Amino acid sequence: MNSDAIDWPRKTREMHSHHFDSTIWNDFRFRPDDIVIGTYAKSGTTWMQQIVGQLIFAGAEDVNVPELSPWLDLRVPPKDVKLRAVEAQAHRRFLKTHLPVDALVFSPEAKYVYIGRDGRDVLWSMYNHHARANAEWYRALNETPGLVGDPIAPPPVSIREYFHNWLDRDGHPFWPFWENIRSWWKVRNLPNVLLVHFADLKTDMAGEIARIANFLGIEVNPDRWSAILEHCSFDYMKRNAARSAPLGGVFWDGGAETFIHKGTNGRWRDVLTRAESAKYERMANDKLGFEAAYWLAHGMRANRVNVA
Questions:
Q1: 192-196 long-range CB contacts below 8 Å, 24 or more apart?
Q2: Looking at the predicted structure, is the pLDDT value of residue 308 above 70?
């Protein structure tokens, strides 16, 4: 594909909230080998950061993902502090974003890995994340200067109520869900974008990591392959959660082990009624179209969606 003939994505808006300050991308200076990990949130973000970090550092034991791979558009710490830290990094950089494509400055030279997950699984993981957040989490988001929009409040006791609020108000109280998926699905055929699905990683982690390595142009030493797979396993990440959770997990009751929670899908099946689940599925088809909705629910290995 001739890059000169490609209509590359352009930034068309800013996003601000208790979490977001998208303006940081306007001042970020890309390097040709940068990697950007995109997700909606609670879709396997930390897992993908761990995978990319393990590939870059060849299966090293002490890769501190939160330090090495910051969430760039999170509005804390201040963007000047974050930009200086990222600019000082000498290794191949791998950054995290939860923005839709049209709120990013998109580099034709960087590589973008986007991981998706069924929205019901996202919601279940997000509820745990939100319900276990402590006073320090709320202080960081709501009391740091520069808040635009409403502060974030504690969740309701009922996860079913949380599900309906999130679905009926499109991502409330975090940020819009459907536009995030739709924007990344739209650019899936660009030569520097790779879509990965949480369910596919669960089904064949080794195969998916090999696919990611190939996309990133990383040649893995066969002697390091077993270490990479071990360090990307859920059991390993759970045992070493302090090196995966932001600030070692200080924002959540129960610490880092709360942040690295279960890593499983389908917990909603025991709570949602058939009608409630069907409501989500109808909305997914309406908002995304059949192909994208099917991919979001099942991944590529269901052999019915070609995202290449």
A1: 192/108, 192/109, 192/110, 192/111, 192/112, 193/112, 193/114, 194/111, 194/112, 194/113, 194/114, 195/114, 195/115, 195/116, 195/295, 195/300, 195/307, 196/44, 196/48, 196/113, 196/114, 196/115, 196/116
A2: no
Selection from 274, 265, 277, 262 nearest residue 163 by Cα: 277
Reported as type and span, the H/E element at residue 124 is: helix 119-131
Distance CA 104, CA 183 (A): 11
Average pLDDT rounded to a whole number, residues 150-178? 97
**CB-count exposure of residue 84 (10 Å: 0-12, 13-18, 19+):** exposed
pLDDT average, residue stretch 183-208: 97
The dihedrals phi and psi of 84, each to the nearest 5 degrees, come to: -60, -40
In this prediction, residue 248 carries a pLDDT of 57
For residue 44, what pLDDT band results from cuts at 50, 70 and 90? very high
Strand 111-116 relative to strand 35-38: parallel, antiparallel, unpaired?
parallel
Query: For the chain, how far is it from start to end, CA to CA, in angstroms?
Result: 13
Phi/psi of residue 38, nearest 5 degrees: -110, 140
Compute the distance between CA of residue 171 and CA of residue 17 in angstroms, rounded to an integer.
13
Residue 301 has a pLDDT of 72
- Say if residues 105 and 34 touch (Cβ distance below 8 Å): no
Domain ranges of the chain: 11-302
Considering just the CA atoms, what is the radius of gyration of the chain in Å?
19
How are the residues of the chain apportioned to helix, strand and coil, as percentages rounded to the nearest 5?
Answer: 50, 10, 45
CATH architecture of structural domain 11-302: 3-Layer(aba) Sandwich (3.40)
pLDDT mean across residues, the chain: 91
Q: Is 211 exposed, middle or buried (0-12, 13-18, 19+ CB in 10 A)?
A: middle
Cα–Cα dist 124/120, whole Å: 6
C-alpha–C-alpha distance, residues 99 and 87, integer Å? 21
